[in-house]
């Protein structure tokens, strides 16, 4: 298989609110949008995040059309976790897990977007 891109699509109550959060705080840009749909890209990370309003009839299969679930993380690798932590904390971003360092070298913190999606920034040390 030759993949040309990667995206994750999340069902949330207010797609525009989550999109604004990624644009304002994490450097994503909007690729396209429509009623109940926003597609974002982060050129540096070569990642796409798509938000769909929960309950859209176009979501298939309908049996899996619930909200973005427990245990889901959007993870971005950064070069300077301490600078990013200070910048986002000072901007009033809701930090849900302060900086921690795991024994295997993962230094990270977690924040919550307006729909409760957890976003984790990581630096490998």
TrEMBL record:
This is VOC family protein. Pfam families: Glyoxalase. Residues 3-124 form the VOC domain. It comes from Nocardia callitridis.
């Amino acid at each position: 298989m030759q993949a040309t891109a990667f995206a994750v699509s999340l069902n949330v109550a207010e797609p525009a609110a989550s999109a604004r959060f990624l644009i304002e705080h994490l450097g994503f840009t909007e690729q396209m949008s429509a009623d109940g749909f926003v597609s974002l890209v982060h050129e540096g990370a070569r990642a796409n995040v798509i938000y769909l309003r929960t309950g859209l009839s176009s979501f298939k299969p309908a049996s899996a059309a619930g909200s973005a679930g427990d245990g889901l993380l959007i993870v971005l690798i950064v070069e300077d976790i301490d600078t990013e932590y200070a910048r986002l904390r000072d901007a009033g971003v809701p930090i849900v897990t302060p900086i921690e360092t795991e024994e295997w070298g993962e230094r990270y913190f977690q924040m919550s977007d307006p729909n409760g999606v957890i976003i984790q920034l990581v630096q490998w040390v």
